[in-house]
Write a structure and sequence with these properties.
This protein is α/β, with parallel strands linked by helices. Helix 12 links the parallel strand 7 and strand 8. Helix 7 runs parallel beside helix 16. It binds iron/sulfur cluster (SF4).
Length: about 475
């Protein structure tokens, strides 16, 4: 087959159909509607099938992108799904929530001249439309070992999927009553519908992964207890980073101040889709301020709007150009009527006589020289403003929840209080300071992306299999894996 030259390509990706912004800001229905077959075929034809496909190295789980796109071009969606599944169990999820524009699409060869291939949109199309083959659990004469996976978010589930393929007996322990971790509690259904999560998790159960909910590691069991009392040969810690970060300014523990974690968990897991019939209603007041401008902040802003708050504002200390949120999320938030206060930082939350929020004092900022990551630093100006508000949501990132680290003697932490593990490279082992204990995902990195967590989960599975094959030799080295 002859593929096109760059100069023959459409300069833009096929547009993603979206729900109207006025209608969607009143409900939790999915905003992006997904490609039609015609859209997908047109977009797949924009891939020029490079001899050196740099897109693959931009994918944290190394999906063979040109090969799956080749299957799409000839309308073989099942073949495309098989290729993706070699590396990723969650195409419908990753196609929706991964920041492809900074990963595979940023590395796409054609992006030097025109818009990159819409890899994420094609992945989503395949995940949503291919008919998966019936699942056949892998058979082994003798199991390689018994592995406990703590946490059922993307890192834990990706590890579990591979561990089963390696011949391990795998049990996933989840602290909440539903499976999925941050996919469930952190991402609203208008970005990731719940039936997509259930469908992709069911495939794991079908291949033999056991899942136990309402089991809090650190309370229900401890990590040493899993090994000594329950007979696990190895443990993978993938419990996410559940402790919120605050600013340390006056008033931040007043009534009507939420962390993004609490706010999103209560909405996403306790009936946000069924607004206004929530089991545990959140009282939002009339004027909400969300602090931060990452994807979680965008989720909080857009959820607050959907819950009926007339005024919803984002306060962020840098400019829009430095905002960590995906460009699409920022655009969607603006279209839905969110007001942005860039270059402002909160200095005090004003509290009324009853102990509730009644406003916020903010300082105007200006940008100084770039910091060590190359982002320009926000600088004080000494100019202050008062913002009226009655609800504040902190969306400033998360840290490790100390419940697991404090109940595991000898488990070393890094300087941010997260678990210290060999992480961050394709050949990393995810090994911790404790024999047989591995860790990955947000509990190691702090809040990051779904696909980075899945990459860590896959590396941990590979290392655990090596550890078990080598008779539990410790420490484990990169060369052995
Ligand atoms: Fe296709 Fe872009 Fe990958 Fe080249 S780099 S194979 S154009 S997706």
């Amino acid at each position: 087959r002859n593929y096109r030259k760059i100069k023959e390509l459409s300069p833009h990706q096929a547009k993603m159909p979206e729900r109207d912004h006025v209608e969607r800001a009143r409900n939790f229905k999915e905003v992006n509607l997904g490609y039609s077959l015609q859209d997908a075929l047109g977009e797949a034809e924009r891939c020029i099938q490079c001899a050196k496909p740099t897109c693959i190295s931009g994918c944290p789980v190394q999906i063979d992108i040109p090969r799956f796109i080749r299957h799409v071009v000839v309308r073989d969606l099942e073949g495309a799904l098989e290729v993706i599944n070699e590396a990723s169990i969650f195409p419908s999820i990753c196609g929706r929530v991964c920041p492809q524009e900074t990963q595979c699409e940023a590395q796409c060869v054609i992006a030097k001249k025109v818009e990159s291939v819409g890899i994420g949109r094609l992945e989503r199309f395949v995940g949503d439309n291919a008919k998966p083959k019936p699942v056949v659990p892998p058979r082994f004469e003798k199991k390689l070992g018994k592995v406990a996976v703590c946490g059922s978010g993307p890192a834990g589930l990706a590890a579990a999927a591979d561990l089963v393929k390696f011949g391990c007996d795998v049990t996933v322990y989840e602290a909440l009553h539903v499976v999925g971790g941050v996919l469930q509690y952190g991402i609203p259904s208008f970005r990731l519908p719940r039936d997509i999560i259930s469908r992709e998790v069911q495939r794991l159960v079908d291949v033999g992964v056991k899942i136990e909910t309402n089991k809090v590691i650190g309370k229900t069991f401890t990590v040493p207890g899993l090994i000594k009392d329950k007979g696990y040969d190895a443990v993978f810690l993938a419990v996410g980073a559940g402790a919120p970060a605050f600013l340390g300014i006056p008033g931040e523990f007043a009534g009507q101040v939420y962390s993004a974690n609490e706010f999103l968990t209560r909405v996403n897991l306790m009936g946000g889709d069924k607004f206004p019939y929530l089991d545990t209603p959140i009282s939002l007041g009339k004027s909400v301020v969300v602090i931060g401008a990452g994807n979680t902040a965008m989720d909080c802003l857009r959820v607050a709007k959907r819950l009926g708050a007339p005024t919803v504002r984002c306060v962020y200390r840098r400019s829009e150009a430095e905002a960590p949120a995906r460009i699409e999320e920022l655009r969607h938030a603006k279209e839905e009527g969110i007001d942005f206060f860039f270059l402002h930082t909160p200095v005090e939350i004003r509290v009324d006589a009853d102990g509730n929020v009644q406003g916020m004092k903010v300082e105007e900022m200006e940008l100084g020289a770039p910091d060590e990551k190359g982002r320009r630093k926000p600088m004080s100006t000494g100019r202050f403003k008062e913002l009226e508000c009655d609800t504040v949501i902190y969306a400033l990132g998360t840290k490790a929840n100390p419940i697991i680290t404090q109940s595991t003697p000898g488990l070393e932490l890094n300087k941010w209080g997260n678990i210290a593990a060999d992480d961050g490279k394709l050949e990393s082992t995810q090994a911790t300071s404790l024999p047989g204990v591995f860790a990955g995902g947000d509990i190691v990195t702090g809040g990051a992306t779904v696909i980075l967590a899945m990459g860590a989960g896959r590396r941990a599975a590979r290392s655990i299999a090596t550890y078990l094959k080598n008779g539990k030799k410790w420490p484990i080295t990169k060369e052995e894996v």
